[in-house]
Amino acid sequence: MTAASIAHPARAVVAALVVLALGWLLAPRFAPPVYDGVGFPDEPYRFVVAPSDAKTHKAPTTATDQVPVTKGTAAAAVLNSAEQAPQVSVLIPTGRLQAPAGATRIALHAKPIPPMAAPSGDSLWSNVYDVGADDPKVALHDSSPPATITLRAASAQRPYPKIERYAGGRWTPVKTVPVGQDIYQATLPALGDYAVVGTSPLVVGAKAGSSTTSRSGVIIFVGAVVVVLGLIVIGVVRRRRRTEEPV
To answer: Which of 83, 87, 103, 225 is 20 to 30 A off residue 240, Cα-Cα?
Structure first.
């Protein structure tokens, strides 16, 4: 095998590594959330009681829905507040709401209310939202598939927070999953007061930490390098076999 045949794949390896390195260095260190992307940026969080570092003093909005009741069965309910992205969203499947006798419609709301004290050592990362009905006799049955509540936090800081329910003078975590950089979804076992609760003080507008995503970037980069090197080796071996074949 000649020096020229070795030099060509070597140059290809160097060029591929340079391209991969530039791509990794220029790539963003966090994935865009559901709304916080090109053309769909999250507006600054709207607080009931704004902290000193709040970026806006607009009032938060209330999500509402008028749910029809037919022969005692309530239809599905969908509530979304008016912010972008919505700061609260609620989805209740058909038949899950119990309406008072004779009711033909249920008026639901998810409205921001003044905050109460967070659990000891924790902090509220969102407004507290009262998810309920105008008629206090309306109840929610917990079943499968569950009703869900989605809350946007005022921060994407880590570690991940949880959505918790406030009832009887105490906070209780509910099963929560992240669905965006600062958006979280949880089961809604009952009507009541809910908020995003984090284990550290709130930093308004903070982005997600880069440690995890940087490690992911390194893994992707190394994997890409391995693939490129494998392809180059295969090319060299094939070239060598062709040069060694008798004419």
So the answer is: 225
